[in-house]
């Protein structure tokens, strides 16, 4: 036995407290399911324990009294044990277990049973009395509540009627009540003022008298559904005629009012005057969809119209002219933007005069870009005539500030059936076509061509992909050998950059070098090519002669016109050579003849600095630039690369004597200026032999090897090929 148990036994030698707890447990389990209480069953059991103690004490009290049992019955009612089943279960538990757990050995069982029975009667009486008093109290409370509710309802009804009248008369919106036949029964002052201020012009009229030509088609259908009781309310934007003939625009809400039985009885209309708001919205809409300086529809409105045209059905066709003024920037720069704006206004007026037929419109997209749209059955003819009219009216000089200015324009035309292309695709094609017309000299129109569009889109895609391609290492270099015509040995190689495009495969320089020139990426790309080519040349030299005694293979690297103008050309080249350890004499930079036509000393200065260091400068594509041969003396070049067009006649047998004479003269001139001659495009052995006899120094072409990986230079047996 634990100390706590020993202490409990000393305090309760007969174990009465434990027996009371067991009795309370049995009692709670019996009546808890029939009790409407928020207590849990263990909590409810603790609530019954004092009541069990009262019953136990009453069972043994001298003199015997049932008042405690009556109190227990009332306490059960207070604990929400009001279900009849709870009382019967309680009496059953007392009858079966009270004497068993709470009786004393010193008393006779018969006496305890008799007292238990009287306690049950007393508990039932107390229970019934408490339940009766509670019922009477609840009935009285209900009666008081009913009276209070009736009084509150009367007051609320009066207050509601007062508020409704105040709202009806003082509302900022118009309110009208009509019967189901449409007779207007009552209107407030606001609605009267909305219709002109005369009440008799509103009250007594029929709702149907307020029909308006601009009513939405379904408004009156919704109204008929409402008066039939099929709809509770509807909302619509509806115009009305005032008495003076002006139009009142409203946001209208009509609701159905039913009687006590739920039958339709009246209709209630709420009207908000939106006339000024609508006029403001129309003004804002105009400003949002029209160009402020010219008054023409702007890009937003044009695309809305174009979208409708392109989604039309039944074989509809369209024609679109995309116009860009030629040389407008020069006008802005010379005369100022104010004059340029006035010029655009005049151009807009002239364009508007060209598009007057049904289905034609002119819009300004921005800057000096305009579009003209036509629709019809023979749009190919119509759009051609529209473009011709535009070019004709633009050809008339415009007078600005006392000056006559000639305006030219380039037009791209897209024509075809609706439903085949989106508006964005149509405008893109027109834009591409317009630039094609501008590239052809301007002051003309061109029709769109799917293949030309595809090429332009591809060029754009390549242009945007160039920067990332350089970062991802998608470029690589192939090397085409340079052969010494005297002994057939490999003299060097030309580095030719390639692009391994993820979608288009391997692209040659003609596909992306012009794009790199246009975007300025040619500078970092050219530096990368120079680094890789010089590094490879150094590797070849180390392989051929570890001690560095043999002549290194020369590496030729092309320079673009943009690189020639870059201020870091000399410093970048020096840095690359020093980092690699390659001798300057093993590097040859090729510059096209066209890039040096008319070159001034500022452009030639970096080339002279490189030439003074020992770097060879080759004049590439010589003979295609129509340069003055006398200029060769002032150019810092050491090599002429003869264009293949001069030697193609030597591929035939017998060789073209004119080509032979031309090449012979160029070689003699070059050698007299102490310039070496390299020939491109050698494709046959007879051609190679003829060039060797004419005194050409080096050559390259498919006869020797196609451009390839760097290791092919060590696998070529070129001596036998000559």
Q: Explain this structure to me?
A:
The protein is an alpha/beta fold. It is built from 23 helices and 21 strands. The strands form four sheets. The protein has an eight-stranded mixed barrel, surrounded by five helices. It has a five-stranded antiparallel beta sheet with strand order 2-1-5-4-3, with helices on both faces. The termini are far apart. The model is unreliable at 1-11 and 717-722 (pLDDT under 50).
Low-confidence stretches: 1-11, 717-722
N- to C-terminal distance:
121 Å
Q: What is the helix fraction of residues, given as a range?
A: 40-55%
Supply Rg: 53 Å
Major β-sheet profile: 8 strands, mixed, barrel
Strand % is 15-25%
Which strand order does the major sheet show? 13-14-16-17-18-19-20-21
Structural class: alpha/beta
